[in-house]
Amino acid sequence: MCRQGHRSAVDTVADADHAVPTGPGTPADVRQAVRRALAGRSGGLTRDAEDAAGDVLLVASELVTNAMLHGGGVTGFDVTRTERAVRLSVSDRSDRLPVAVDPFDEVGRMRVGGRGWMIVCTLASDVVVSRLRAGGKRITAEVPLLPGPRV
Description:
- With 151 residues, the chain is of the alpha+beta class.
- The protein contains three helices and five strands; from the N terminus they run βααββαββ.
- The longest helix has 24 residues, at 47-70.
- It starts with 7 loop residues before the first strand and ends in a 7-residue tail after the last strand.
């Protein structure tokens, strides 16, 4: 689903015990929830983690925007911070899996939009798409807070 060299997976059915709780529904709400998660840990962020926070905010915005534009709306959101990464989960109503769109159309013109999934796949170290039993899907992306090689 993401490009080669990037770890990603598709679960055929998500476990009902891991349902994502309903939460913020707009990109601005989600960015605020991510900021709270980043600030809520004692000791704050290292300099490198502060730099990576922009990546986390961008991935969160893209996941929610894609759910709103292509997934029938956000049905759940969760953010979890560890020492090394932030895990973001966004659920929506659509069973359609995300696809990477070529930035150029069939005659070589640059397309407007269509880069959200590519951004998620580039910035996240791990992406899992899970189909939900009640319908829809959950996308979970883990964005590192520490510098590391990007594919």
